[in-house]
């Protein structure tokens, strides 16, 4: 395993999540879900801006025009970065007031994939939805508990997905034109001592970089044979997600959380909830933009 050097951005999130690289602004975005905060860190200036919303804020994505798509509670909204106006687009699970979004990505066709969970973490209560231009969410997977990390292979043939408590990364056959998915195999089984798989991203070698909640790092897995290749060790236990960004797409922004930690643990790991930047020898991809 290599030794990685990190720099930290002191955001002190209760539940940091949703990292996103916005190439047009040369900024990283991320959220503090429980506190409804949206962070923007400009890489060159080092400045960090914070916006707040009276909602659970779980997902940051980008529309074709460079504005943001946000997942707030169970609703998807467009956010104009200039006027700061929110335009509500659609909602899922309106009858389930204890539910919220958790993680989301845009696929190579510009469709939004976004998952839910119960804030009581009820087993099997969550689902994964796909939203295209008609703004009618289609249920793709149900009986999920913590719908989480997603990634697509460069050839658009495979979709990887994490339902955190299963400790598995599943591979699905993916039809780019229709957006249909079909279970293919369990690509990676995470050993219990390494924590729980959370958010993830994919590099240009087709390897998966996975945040391990309770595992104190980001782990690089080979989904072709399930082998662990590398780990970025970090000074906090609850690592929640990661994404590639920066000029060469070789900088990993990594989020973390303070939740489920005692006062003693927070004293022991005072950087919990901060964000970490790590230069890697790998490159990721620019994120896809939503078609609306």
Automatic annotation (TrEMBL):
<dbReference type="InterPro" id="IPR013658">
    <property type="entry name" value="SGL"/>
</dbReference>
<dbReference type="InterPro" id="IPR005511">
    <property type="entry name" value="SMP-30"/>
</dbReference>
<comment type="similarity">
    <text>Belongs to the SMP-30/CGR1 family.</text>
</comment>
<feature type="domain" description="SMP-30/Gluconolactonase/LRE-like region">
    <location>
        <begin position="15"/>
        <end position="258"/>
    </location>
</feature>
<dbReference type="Pfam" id="PF08450">
    <property type="entry name" value="SGL"/>
</dbReference>
<protein>
    <submittedName>
        <fullName>Sugar lactone lactonase YvrE</fullName>
    </submittedName>
</protein>
<dbReference type="InterPro" id="IPR011042">
    <property type="entry name" value="6-blade_b-propeller_TolB-like"/>
</dbReference>
């Amino acid at each position: 395993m290599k030794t990685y050097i990190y720099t930290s951005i002191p955001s002190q999130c209760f539940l940091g999540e949703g990292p996103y690289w916005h190439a047009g602004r040369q900024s990283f975005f991320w959220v503090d879900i429980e506190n409804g905060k949206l962070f923007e860190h400009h890489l060159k200036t080092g400045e960090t801006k914070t916006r707040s919303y009276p909602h659970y804020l779980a997902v940051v994505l980008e529309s074709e025009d460079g504005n943001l798509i946000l997942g707030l509670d169970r609703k998807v909204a467009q956010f104009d970065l200039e006027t700061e106006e929110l335009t509500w687009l659609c909602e899922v699970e309106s009858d389930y007031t204890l539910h919220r979004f958790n993680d989301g990505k845009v696929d190579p066709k510009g469709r939004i994939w976004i998952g839910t969970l119960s804030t009581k973490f009820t087993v099997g209560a969550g689902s994964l939805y796909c939203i295209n231009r008609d703004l009618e969410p289609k249920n793709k997977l149900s009986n999920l508990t913590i719908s989480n990390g997603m990634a697509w292979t460069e050839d658009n043939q495979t979709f990887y997905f994490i339902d955190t408590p299963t400790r598995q990364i599943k591979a699905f056959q993916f039809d780019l034109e229709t957006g249909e998915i079909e279970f293919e195999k369990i690509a990676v089984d995470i050993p219990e001592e390494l924590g729980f798989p959370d958010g993830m991203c994919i590099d240009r070698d087709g390897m998966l970089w996975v945040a391990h909640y309770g595992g104190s790092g980001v782990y690089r897995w080979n989904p072709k044979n399930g082998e662990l290749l590398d780990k970025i060790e970090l000074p906090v236990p609850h690592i929640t997600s990661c994404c590639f960004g920066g000029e060469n797409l070789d900088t990993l922004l990594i989020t973390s959380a303070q939740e489920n930690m005692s006062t003693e643990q927070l004293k022991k790991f005072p950087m919990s909830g901060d964000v970490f930047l790590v230069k890697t020898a790998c490159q990721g991809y620019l994120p896809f933009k939503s078609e609306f």
